Amino acid sequence: MTQRKLIRPDVQDQKSSRGARRKQSPPEQTNAEEFYYLKQMAGKTPMIVVLTNDEELLGWIEWYDKNAIKLNRQDGPNLLIPKHNIRYMFKEEELKRFRRRGRS
């Protein structure tokens, strides 16, 4: 009788191949902010920008970059607002919808 040679895959090779199939981390930037700004700029959508001091500004976004937005206004001068001073912003039509819903 001859001895049979057992053929088994090397366990270390399996571990290293699993590590290569690791799930990739999500991208740091999704471009969602860029898409939102471009859409609002193209439509000259009236926006309400609420600052960290609770001041509300009404206008449309003409321009933006990584650190600031330029807000054009009809009833006042155009403003360059640093993003760190913005608490949140929303479309003016959402405010009108909210007020209508609150009355009924």
Features:
SH3 type barrels, alpha+beta, 3 helices, five-stranded antiparallel β-sheet
Short structural summary:
This protein has 104 residues and is of the alpha+beta class. 33% of the residues lie in helices and 28% in strands.
Question: What does this molecule look like?
Answer:
This protein is of the alpha+beta class and 104 residues long. The chain has helices spanning 11-20, 32-43, 92-103; strands at residues 47-51, 56-64, 68-72, 79-82, 86-91. Strands 4-3-2-1-5 form a five-stranded antiparallel sheet. The model has no long low-confidence stretch (mean pLDDT 85).
List the helices and strands and how they pair.
Blueprint lengths: L10 H10 L11 H12 L3 E5 L4 E9 L3 E5 L6 E4 L3 E6 H12 L1
Antiparallel strand pairs: 1-2, 1-5, 2-3, 3-4
Low-confidence stretches: none
Q: Based on CA inertia axes, which overall geometry fits?
A: elongated
At the third CATH level, what is the topology name of the domain at 32-103? Answer: SH3 type barrels
Beta-strand share of residues: 25-35%
Radius of gyration: 27 Å
CATH arch. level architecture of the domain at 32-103: Roll
Q: Write down how many β-strands occur, each being a DSSP E stretch of 2 or more residues.
A: 5
Instruction: Give the strand order, joined by hyphens, for the main sheet.
Output: 4-3-2-1-5
What top-tier CATH class of the domain at 32-103 fits best? Answer: Mainly Beta
Biggest sheet features: 5 strands, antiparallel
Overall mean pLDDT stands at 85
Order of secondary-structure elements = HHEEEEEH
Provide the structure class: alpha+beta
